[in-house]
């Protein structure tokens, strides 16, 4: 039998890589290359622990959507700016964050739907 406690634990466990990434952001935000590498390692470790069919495609889609949105917000609208940026005036790690966010949203959505 499924319980609310199990669902909450599952949701929290899916958010752990994002929480770790945000903690790393606090310490390494000035080093774009290092932070990008650390985010990539987090994603690879997360996939090693749990990988579902075609999640690489979801990661890529999320990264492309995120890249498009960030490029539009920064370069077209001027909505935000980043310090220590790289290509297109956005940090290199940003599309990785978007991509993995798509995966987490998918996993949590499926868990809630099947609850």
Q: What's the rounded overall pLDDT mean?
A: 91
The number of strands is 0
Distance between the termini: 10 Å
Low-confidence stretches: none
Shape: globular
- Give the C-alpha Rg: 15 Å
Beta-strand residue percentage: under 5%
Report the helical percentage: over 70%
Structural class: mainly alpha
- SSE string: HHHH
- Count of helical stretches: 4
Largest sheet: none
In summary, what is this structure?
The protein has 115 residues and is mainly α.
Question: How would you describe this structure to a colleague?
Answer:
The chain has 115 residues and is an all-alpha fold. It has 4 helices and no strands. The longest helix has 25 residues. It is globular and about 45 Å long. The protein starts with a helix and ends with a helix.
Mind sketching the topology for me?
Blueprint: H1 4-28, H2 32-49, H3 55-76, H4 93-113
Which terms summarize this structure?
mainly alpha, 4 helices, globular
